[in-house]
Amino acid sequence: MTLQKYSVCILVASVLLFGLLLAGCGSKVISVQKATAKKDQTHLIEVLTNAEEDWLIEDAAWGLARVGTAKAVAPLLAILNNTSGSADRRAAAAYALGHIKDPRAVQPLVGALERAGNPEERYWIVVALGAFDDSDAKAALESVCGDADVMVSRAARKGLLRFARGER
Fold first, then answer.
1. Measuring CA to CA, which residue among 28, 37, 102 is closest to residue 58?
2. For residues 90 and 161, what is the distance between their CA atoms, to the nearest angstrom?
3. Does 148 reside within a domain?
4. pLDDT 10s digits, 11-63
5. pTM here?
6. What's the structural domain count of the chain?
7. What are the b/e assignments for 48-70, b being 16+ CB within 10 Å?
8. More reliable by pLDDT, 8 or 153
């Protein structure tokens, strides 16, 4: 076989393999989107706890932010407290916990804020804490009003303003 034909064969095989990989990813994304639309919290929690891909876990957490109840809190807290996991996973878990507003999440969110080094992670933790009517959440927000990251400090000030107005 000539070099040109060999190169074409390699290219075709690569395209086919890439297509198969995308098809597998696509079906996982679609399953999470369908579960969110159907408010299938059980499937989203299953993805959250069993998936290996960061992006899929993040999508499931974002879905739980829309449809989650107290049942989702424990697996979301497990992700939030997993310091060996990605900051994006923890940020998505924090966001979901802020939407669910279960009071069990306040102390773990405060602890996560103290540990977080990633500005985006800190931002979503601060947004989540801003959803709670809790003195510990308020103290944590006050502690980051002067954060070096402008988005984090702005989110903290907005949370405190909502707290002062009683907007929870």
1. 28
2. 25
3. yes
4. 444 433 344 344 445 676 677 677 667 778 888 999 899 988 888 899 999 99
5. 0.81
6. 1
7. beebeeebbbbbbbbbbbebbee
8. 153
